[in-house]
Automatic annotation (TrEMBL):
This is Arginine exporter protein ArgO. Keywords: Cell membrane, Membrane, Transmembrane, Transmembrane helix. It holds the Pfam family LysE. GO terms for molecular function: amino acid transmembrane transporter activity. It is found in: Cell membrane. The chain crosses the membrane at residues 6-27, 74-92, 104-124, 144-169, 181-199. GO terms for cellular component: plasma membrane. It is a multi-pass membrane protein. The gene is argO. InterPro entries: LeuE-type.
Amino acid sequence: MPPSLIAGFALGLSLIMAIGAQNAFVLRQGLRRQHVFWICLTCAGSDAVLITAGVFGFGSLALAVPWFEQAMRWGGAAFLIWYGARALRAAWQGGEKLEAAQDGAGAALLPVLATVLALTWLNPHVYLDTVVLLGSISAQYPQPLVFAAGAAIASFTFFFTLGYGASLLAPVFARPRAWQVLDAIVGLTMWAIAVKLLLM
């Protein structure tokens, strides 16, 4: 296996495993078994596009536009505050539980994809990790595109494992209290990331 591929996979996986708004959303939808395939594909596909853009030098272009980072930071923070408030309200109200027969029915696909796209593309950290960091590090390897492929494979591996692996926790989330705890964690995570963005 090419060293560039292994290095890209290892670095990509280490960056994406950090707890964040996107991962929390994938976990929640995986537990609900709602549109898991499309959510995982959207997250991993977005990462692949951004990583490829970084390899082709778009990181320097993003850094050259002074308003880009600030606009993404404020937009991302506003969205995270709103989404965090929704999660915390759900935690306060309670009453949700995971039905054993639930197989994807529920929220419509397009609103769910719009949410996951916002969580992905309105987060400036995504650009720093994929376009700037992975893009610049790929140039240090003899096969930058192979390095990028490794990072993209790591993203697909992680998101599909998280989305479909969440079903292993289904017995725990058959209890409404577990959903309240998860929603509280998701909401607080969203708000913590929003505060971090605003203080950057």
